[in-house]
Write a structure and sequence with these properties.
InterPro entries: UDP-D-xylose:L-fucose_XylT. With 1320 residues, the chain is of the alpha/beta class. The chain is built from 38 helices and 49 strands. The two termini are 41 Å apart.
Length: 1320
């Protein structure tokens, strides 16, 4: 955002600007001009202070003459690293005198010395924490500006800071301690009273005291600040000298063409070119010397390179790889090879850029390409051809170097003949794991000679040996850190290319690297140490001077020296590099041999149909099929043998499977589960059962794919399904039917195996009669927790006999016992790691299915697993060890040879052996599996009994109205209601008893509640709070108060739902509300009114309880008279910090009497004392964990409300809690221990039986017992709760006094202008 110093500029810039605080000034002013310069510079401080006060945002301020050459916020840079550390409240640039110095001569010892004066033209300030200190520092600087108007912001800020630094504790504005750059000055001082500040690197962020010539030569330069000259023309000259003057116009910024003036002919600064880019052969006939240039659409190349970074099309898929760019290279003569590479990359949903070796190709490819650095060459060249091959190969190095220089991105480079069979960047693979570790600056593929070898014969001992030569056709380089070393290695390789044009990139890169490895410390380009693959060679060497490099697995990323036959048999193969042959036709032959030639055209890559040529009839390689997929029964009448095939829209099945991975429709909801795919299975005869399963999954906003057991169903379901592997079967089959049941059940195993082989995804498989009541993947549940732990390759549900048992009678000791048999109708399998073991287990189960077609998947899977468990090391398919549920059985065994498996909780995921009556009474139930009956009608009956039959149709799943049949009148199961929801007063006149119901748009309430969870409108803002829902409550009579609350919440970007206490309000508010549980009440009620106040207040408890039961969400509840001045959930605040810690099940505000006190007089010793009573108008409750305890506390409060209708929620909740706190272990509803605020009271008690609760800061979240005058003076105030008065007009008065009455209407909340009268 731009602080506009005058109204004319603010009007011109529009939305991206605001009018600065202070006196307007429209003239450009030279440094130290008599008046204007000081007015402008001090207004910058005033404006920053006002933004800090208003938003609690952290701020980076940059003068407009401080221009960024590359991304200044990368985590590898000093500023980016320090901001991310969260350790510093102020980060600044040094002030260095006089001008004209060389940056290379700057004494390193000045860095991190505490200054008297420093620069204020580029700095970071932490507005989101320690606001009392941070804002005070800026207030002091503004006071100094007002007292000394003849001095600028720099003088006033730093003189003010130094004066504050020297204050005594008795003086106003005292700050206890100033800690500079991690010195040990402030030991024993309370951290909340310390200002931490430090300087950013002057070699990265270069000040204008350093000459432009020396700055240009500084490889670390990220920005240049054109200081030490007078007037903007002189500043422009300095920026032109350092190549940081763009000659662009505003159309590049806004995307809107400027038609009133002639735009500059140049819209972007080109990337720098390597030195001597023309090969010394001088062969100009191949094309002119070129440099990297921007795209024709006006975007600079840097912008386009950054846009394609992240490795995947979906930028939320692997956010940890957001700064990694995938590059390949080609020229026109190699286009067919490039197209093949791009087709496979497209199917894997990768994102990339192409280095075009000639202009014709760059024009053809357009936005996804750029013209490579160096001499153009358009002909395809065989390996080692006299000139062209060397020109092309060395240009690849030049281009990678220039991209790193310009963008500071990490790069993965792949030759176009190195084709990906499956995702090469999974964290389970060597390359993906090493990139994510952040330990290596260079990761490469080994060079292995001679050709024709078998990959299976490769000696494992060569892996991770330090090489003399290696491959340069597929590698990773960390362009975002240690740039001086990394770029120097590539500069050396380019220099060797220029000196030895008769040799290719591989020879020159590795000869240059080895030569650099052998340099002495006195030689130019010296690198202190080269550490290969975590060896201990560089101990004691400064890590910033070490190059870490290592080789990726040659069994995963297979080189062409290995025969195609052996590669095809290698289960670990992820890519094949068609080397060791001459010319692209021979390379094509090798890729065809390993089934990595796509026969596709560019329409698959671009999504635009190619009309000038006939596209290939085959657009996708089908997934491999299991061996012997036809059951030995030979019952062909059921349908033909099939295999997994791509969708009709041209997307490969792999792409569609990956698109549905992540478990949730919203892919940002649980990014840690992004590689987990939910599968179910059905055939046409079982469609009604499938539809029911899908309806419940839809309401929970899950995402999935269906294995269709016959073609008819696959055609019907379309994109969300695929044809299962094996023999087709269209009839619904009862358990243990003679043939069909076994065919279907074993096909499920075959299909899961094929999906794992093709995608390396983890899989959760659920039968369609295993229906989810609530989200089964929450981290608070056994399955969700175990998946996230990454410890288990297989998680299953127990098999328990006989049927008709009560779940409450299940012996807890059976949980986690190692089984002989278990259920295969609901399980998780880790397809993304230990593929050799995991896939082998499923291959064995398929083999058993083929040998024993008269038995189902469950019998064959578990008999096969038990047989494998008992194998000896000399037998085929041996697995070294099976570890069950963290037993200590496999100590000393290599972890890569261990299968870890464990059972999920049978009380959460309930099997049909347990009666439906007992399941309904089990508060932990998340799903019910309708087993132990024959035929789908009987299964339907069981699901109806447990209220898991939806009576919905496919329109709820697809969002498309079904017109050929009458949909069910009921589209959603309402949330359960609390017991005895009608108050015992019997006052029916206020409205009928209600329960939580779905929205009119067909979305279930559960879906809407989940949609609003996350606390913020922007769901990417605080992903750690994604399972927290903000609720408030109101009725029609209280609408004005609610509107005020919502206006402030809107301004803070919050998201919430309203519990509407009457139908009229719920109808009025629409999608953002739901009808509260209990008796309707539409009148506003003063505190303690005879009936209404108690009805409303207890209904709030009922509704919170029901929302927790239905969603397992954590909840923050706020009364509508508790208004937020600033963001209440910042991690720097007590509530935000405690929620994020995950330590507390309940966080509340204290109850303090009497009214009219001053907040400043509150005794700090009351904070964190265990209370008898506290406030229930603003609290957090963890609905997503320890549900049995948390829900019980609220159930008790509702019971107390029902028994004591003359008392409100606060009295009933806390009296109930205190009574529960005092219960004995023999009493119903006993909770083993209540731990208050980290006390040591519950030592030795099982944590699952402990309720942790604590109070938020009363100085941040201020209660109405404190006067509005004292609250206004409290710098820590985040919210004010207008309590201790009667009636909403009096509450409004208090909120007006603390400047928390918005005078807004609903149009600010909804974005829709209000055209009719409001309610009430």
């Amino acid at each position: 955002m731009a602080m506009a110093m005058n109204k004319e500029l603010q009007t011109h810039l529009g939305e991206r600007s605001f009018l600065a605080t202070g006196q307007e000034w429209e003239k450009a002013e030279a440094f130290n001009s008599p008046v204007g310069f000081k007015v402008i510079s001090c207004n910058k401080l005033r404006s920053v202070l006002d933004v800090l006060r208003e938003t609690n945002l952290d701020i980076v301020f940059s003068d407009a003459d401080n221009v960024f050459k590359s991304d200044p916020f990368l985590p590898s840079l000093s500023l980016g690293s320090m901001i991310r550390s969260g350790k510093y409240e102020y980060i600044y640039g040094r002030k260095i005198e006089p001008g004209g110095q060389k940056i290379q001569n700057l004494n390193p010892e000045v860095y991190h010395q505490e200054p008297i004066k420093a620069n204020t033209g580029f700095y970071y300030v932490a507005g989101g924490r320690k606001q009392n200190i941070v804002q005070r520092i800026f207030e002091v600087s503004v006071e100094w500006c007002d007292r000394r108007p003849s001095l600028d912001d720099q003088e006033n800020f730093w003189d003010g800071l130094v004066a504050t630094r020297n204050k005594k504790s008795t003086e106003k504005g005292y700050v206890a301690c100033f800690r500079h750059c991690d010195n040990d000055k402030c030991q024993d001082v309370n951290e909340s009273m310390v200002l931490n500040y430090c300087d950013m690197s002057p070699w990265e962020y270069i000040l204008g005291c350093f000459s432009t010539e020396s700055a240009l030569k500084e490889p670390r330069m990220v920005s240049y600040h054109a200081t030490h000259v007078f007037g903007w023309p002189a500043k422009k000259g300095k920026l032109q000298n350092v190549k940081l003057w763009a000659n662009c116009d505003e159309s590049e910024i806004t995307g809107v063409k400027v038609t009133t003036s002639t735009p500059s002919t140049s819209t972007s600064t080109p990337l720098p070119t390597s030195t001597n880019v023309v090969s010394s052969t001088g062969a100009e006939s191949a094309g002119e010397t070129t440099q990297l240039v921007p795209g024709e659409n006006g975007d600079s190349l840097t912008v386009r390179l950054r846009r394609h970074a992240g490795l995947y099309k979906d930028k939320s898929y692997a956010p940890e790889l957001k700064n990694v760019l995938l590059l390949t290279a080609s020229n026109s003569g190699y286009l067919e090879m490039l197209t093949n590479w791009e087709c496979f990359a497209t199917r894997l949903e990768l994102d990339w850029m192409v280095m075009a070796m000639n202009k014709e190709l760059q024009t053809h490819l357009g936005e996804r390409s750029f013209l490579a650095t160096g001499q153009e060459w358009e002909k395809a060249e065989a390996f080692n051809s006299p000139v062209g091959f060397k020109v092309i190969s060395c240009n690849k190095l030049r281009s990678v170097l220039d991209v790193m220089r310009e963008t500071n991105l990490d790069i993965v480079f792949s030759d176009a003949d190195n084709v990906f069979k499956s995702d090469p960047f999974l964290p389970s693979l060597s390359l993906g794991s090493m990139i994510r570790s952040g330990k290596y600056e260079y990761i490469y593929g080994r060079k292995i000679e001679p050709g024709g070898q078998k990959i299976q014969n490769l000696n494992p001992e060569v892996y991770h040996q330090e090489p003399i030569k290696a491959n340069t056709g597929f590698y990773y380089v960390a362009g975002g850190r240690k740039q001086n070393i990394v770029q120097r290695i590539f500069e050396v390789s380019v220099e060797w290319c220029d000196r030895r044009p008769s040799l290719d990139d591989q020879e020159n890169f590795w000869d240059g690297l080895v030569a650099t490895r052998n340099k002495k410390s006195t030689e130019k380009g010296y690198v202190a140490c080269f550490r290969h693959c975590d060896n201990d060679k560089c101990q004691g060497v400064n890590e910033s001077m070490v190059l870490n490099y290592c080789d990726m697995s040659p069994w995963e990323y297979i080189l062409g020296c290995f025969s195609t036959e052996s590669a095809l048999k290698e289960p670990r193969m992820v890519s094949y590099h068609a080397t060791h042959v001459f010319g692209w036709p021979a390379k094509k032959g090798k890729l065809q041999n390993v089934k990595l030639w796509a026969n596709c055209d560019e329409s698959e890559i671009t999504g635009v149909k190619v009309t000038t040529s006939t596209p290939s009839t085959s657009t996708s390689t089908p997934l491999p099929t299991s061996t012997n997929v036809v059951s030995s029964t030979g019952a062909e009448s059921a349908g033909e043998t099939t295999q997994l095939v791509p969708g009709e829209n041209g997307d490969s099945l792999t792409v569609r499977l990956r698109r549905h991975a992540g478990l949730y429709k919203d892919k940002s909801y649980a990014p840690e589960l992004k590689n987990v795919l939910l599968l179910t299975a059905s055939n046409s005869g079982y469609l009604e059962m499938l539809t029911n399963w899908e309806c419940f999954a839809t309401r929970l906003e899950l995402d999935w794919m269906v294995m269709a057991m016959n073609k008819e169903l696959q055609t019907h379901l379309g994109e969300r399904s695929f044809l299962a592997t094996g023999q087709e079967w269209e009839k619904a089959e009862a358990f243990n039917s003679p043939v069909g049941f076994k065919v279907i059940s074993c096909n499920k195993l075959r299909s899961v195996l094929d999906v794992m082989r093709e995608t390396n995804l983890d899989i959760v498989f659920s039968d369609a009669d295993n229906v989810f009541k609530s989200d089964p993947f929450l981290p608070s549940l056994s399955l969700g927790s175990m998946i996230r732990s990454g410890k288990y390759e297989y998680i299953y549900g127990r098999k328990i006999e006989p049927g008709g048992q009560k779940i409450q009678n299940l012996n807890p000791e059976v949980y986690h016992q190692e089984p002989i048999k278990a259920n295969t109708g609901f399980y998780y399998v880790a397809g993304g790691r230990k593929q050799n073991i995991v896939q082998r287990i499923f291959e064995i189960s398929v083999e058993w299915c083929d040998r024993r077609p008269s038995l189902d998947d469950q019998e064959n899977f578990w008999d096969g697993l038990v047989a494998t468990r008992n194998k000896k090391s000399t037998e085929k398919g041996y697995v070294a060890c099976f570890r069950h549920c963290d037993s200590d059985k496999c100590q000393g065994v290599n972890e890569s040879m261990v299968l870890n498996y464990c059972d999920m909780s049978p009380w959460e995921y309930i099997l049909g052996c347990f009666s439906t009556e007992s399941a309904l009474k089990e508060p932990r139930m998340v799903s019910y599996h309708a087993t132990h009956v024959f035929g789908w009608p009987a299964k339907k009956g069981k699901l109806q009994n447990v209220k898991l039959w939806a009576n919905c149709d496919e329109s709820e799943i697809t969002g498309v109205k079904v017109t050929t049949s009458t949909p069910s009148t009921s589209t959603s199961t309402p949330l359960p209601t609390s017991t005895n929801v009608v108050s015992s007063t019997g006052a029916e006149s206020a409205g009928e008893t209600t329960q939580l119901v779905p929205g009119e748009n067909g979305d279930s309430l559960t879906v809407r509640l989940r949609r609003h969870a996350g606390l913020y409108k922007d769901k990417s803002y605080a992903p750690e709070l994604k399972n927290v829902l903000l609720l408030t409550a109101s009725n029609s009579g209280y609408l004005e108060m609610l509107t005020n609350w919502e206006c402030f919440a809107t301004r803070l970007g919050l998201d919430w739902m309203v519990m509407a206490m009457n139908k009229e309000l719920q109808t009025h508010l629409g999608e953002r509300s739901f009808l509260a549980t209990g008796q309707e009440w539409e009148k506003a009620e003063a505190f303690n009114s005879p009936v209404g106040f108690k009805v409303i207040s207890c209904n709030k408890l009922r509704s919170v309880l029901d929302v927790m039961r239905e969603t397992n969400l954590d909840i923050v509840f706020s009364d509508a008279d508790n208004v937020f001045k600033s963001d209440p959930f910042l991690p720097s605040l007590s509530l935000g910090s405690m929620i994020r810690s995950g330590k507390y099940e309940y966080i509340y505000g204290r109850k303090i009497e009497p009214g009219g006190q001053k907040i400043q007089n509150l005794n700090p010793e009351v904070y964190h004392q265990e209370p008898i009573k506290a406030n229930t108008g603003f609290y957090y409750v963890a609905g997503g964990r320890k549900q049995n305890i948390v829900q019980r506390i609220f159930e008790i409060s509702v019971e107390w409300c029902d028994r004591r209708p003359s008392l409100d929620d606060q009295e009933n909740f806390w009296d109930g809690l205190v009574a529960t706190r005092n219960k004995k272990s023999t009493e119903k509803g006993y909770v083993a221990c209540f731990r208050h605020c980290d006390s040591d009271k519950c030592q030795g008690v099982n944590e699952s039986m402990v309720l942790n609760y604590c109070d938020m800061s009363p100085w941040e979240y201020i209660l109405g017992c404190f006067s509005t005058e004292s609250a206004l003076k409290e710098p820590r105030m985040v919210s004010y709760h207008a309590t201790h008065v009667f009636g909403w007009p009096a509450k409004k008065g208090k909120l007006q006094n603390v400047k928390l009455w918005a005078n807004c209407d609903e149009s600010e909340i909804t974005g829709v202008s209000a055209t009719s009268a409001s309610l009430g």
